[in-house]
Write a structure and sequence with these properties.
With 495 residues, the chain is mainly alpha-helical. The chain has helices at residues 2-29, 34-57, 62-86, 105-133, 139-176, 180-207, 220-253, 256-281, 285-309, 313-326, 405-450, 454-491, and strands at residues 339-344, 350-353, 359-360, 363-364, 390-394.
Length: 495
């Protein structure tokens, strides 16, 4: 009954959560992270006060902890809505609702549905472990232990999750603007960062293993069980970091179908069978269920690493451009005329369409090169330079900005490298803080319930499990598609 009541009091939070995730993706695609960080931090602080008031001062008990989650999400949503509507930063990108919002729905669904499965398959497996723990001996203790382990894992998971959000935005921006090398660099920097983060967080978890259980319960049995789980939580977090970065890269490239298939196979063909074998057949209990989850994450990491290494970044840039064009948005270009001419070396001129990446005699323009190629139309011939054997000029002689293709390409690459390193490090920092605040909302609610009784904690854990699996995961449908589409659009400056 406690789980049912907890779910009912969390229903209002579903409506706020769906809208909130969409606004977060909209702002993150523009690298606007400071308002997100401030609003989420303020919300987390107020949630601490709200939990105390609704849980202990109103007589609602554990139901008050659920109500405080709803109030906090709505408060955060209101803050970000006010920022989007009245901030100068969103003046160009947000002009209000229009019929154009319903254009390109097919492309949106192609990204949204696989994105939903990526999130749902992961969350459903996570919550299924909690349900399986209820069939172990001493179910109240085992369910509470699994709940505490999952809450701890979720709390530290926000760090790689912030990197995942940042790398998804960064990759989609760079592919949309025609900078495949910068996208590849961002993935390398994020992967390097996440290794160090996993080691540091793992050591912290192991160091605090003997006192962590006291946050949730004063029972010595629970404290000892939590201490024995902390090393395994640290190991799973290390592998989770790679998973976050690689799935963020997958979303940034718009390859959500691959991500969904990998999640399905790793979690349900490897993880669940391994958890059942270790937890029930070999009698390892919650620890066995958790080790099975680690096996699934490890397999997923291996497969995603192979896909990332084999990624053709030039091809992904082309697909990003085509995705924007198929959605009815013209590709951004430095050449305003609808008709141009193209030649190879000093050969004869040939007609070329305005649209990028069109094939001519078995060849195609390199992604992003149109914005760098400026030629002097006063000369008798058009000469190509550097790596590109193709050059563009307009049909009619008009004054053009003259610049060296070699210098423009070199400067463009240098800009991509420096900005890639800077943004790949700075952007995740604010994103981590905001994600930490959102997870802290549920974490604090569970901590308050745990001090009522571990039976109430078990009921609240099952309630949150149900809401996360059925509600929050499904509501990620729209927002996960925005990861790719908003990123590409902002990269191409298609506001």
């Amino acid at each position: 009954m406690s789980a049912q009541s907890f779910v009912r009091w969390m229903i209002p939070s579903l409506f706020a959560y769906g809208l909130l995730q969409c606004i977060l993706r909209f702002l993150q695609a523009q690298n606007i992270v400071l308002p997100i960080m401030l609003s989420s931090g303020l919300t987390a602080l107020l949630h601490l006060l709200g939990c105390w008031v609704f849980t202990y001062k109103t007589g609602l008990g554990y139901k008050g902890a659920a109500l405080s989650v709803s109030v906090s999400y709505w408060f955060n949503l209101l803050l970000l809505l006010l920022y989007v509507c009245y901030s100068h930063s969103c003046k160009e990108t947000w002009t209000g609702f229009s019929r154009e919002a319903f254009s390109g729905l097919l492309g949106f669904l192609k990204l949204g549905i696989p994105s939903t499965f990526m999130v749902c398959l992961q969350n459903w497996q996570f919550e299924l472990l909690l349900l399986l723990s209820g069939f172990l001996s001493n179910p109240d203790l085992q369910t509470s232990l699994m709940s505490i382990s999952q809450n701890t894992s979720s709390l530290v998971y926000v760090i790689p999750l912030g990197v995942s959000a940042a790398i998804s935005t960064r990759v989609s921006n760079e592919l949309g603007s025609g900078n495949p090398k910068a996208a590849k660099l961002a993935v390398f920097v994020a992967s390097s960062t996440i290794v160090a983060e996993g080691l540091v967080v793992g050591l912290v978890l192991i160091s605090f293993r003997k006192i962590w259980g006291q946050i949730y319960s004063q029972e010595s049995q629970v404290e000892k069980a939590v201490a024995s789980m902390m090393p395994w939580i640290a190991l799973s977090h290390f592998f989770d970091g790679f998973q976050c970065v690689l799935l963020g890269t997958i979303r940034g490239c718009g390859r959500q179908k691959i991500g969904a298939l990998v999640c399905l196979c790793s979690y349900y063909a490897v993880g669940i069978p391994a958890s059942i074998l270790l937890g029930f057949v070999l009698h390892k209990g919650v620890k066995g269920l958790w080790i099975g989850n680690i096996c699934a994450i490890f397999v997923q990491d291996l497969v995603l690493i192979i896909f990332t290494i084999l990624t053709d970044w030039e091809k992904q840039t082309t697909k990003a451009n085509e995705r924007m064009q198929n959605d009815g948005k013209p590709s951004n270009t430095d050449f305003p005329d609808p008709s141009y001419w193209i030649c190879e070396g000093e050969g004869d001129l040939k007609a070329v369409s305005r649209r990028r990446h069109r094939h001519f005699d078995g060849r195609k323009l390199a992604p992003g090169y149109q914005r760098w190629l400026f030629v002097d139309t006063g000369s008798a011939h058009v000469r190509a330079r550097k790596h590109c054997h193709w050059a563009l000029t307009r049909q009619k002689d008009q004054e053009w900005q003259s610049a060296s293709v070699r210098d423009r390409v070199r400067n463009g690459e240098r800009r991509g490298n420096s900005e890639g390193r800077k943004e790949a490090i700075e952007a995740p920092t604010a994103s981590k803080i905001s994600q930490l605040a959102y997870v802290a909302i549920q974490f604090l609610s569970m901590a308050f319930v745990g001090h009522i009784s571990h039976e109430k904690l078990a009921g609240a854990s099952i309630g949150i499990c149900f809401v996360n699996a059925v509600g929050f995961s499904a509501l990620m449908f729209v927002s996960m598609a925005l990861d790719t589409l908003c990123g590409h659009s902002f990269g191409e400056k298609q506001y």
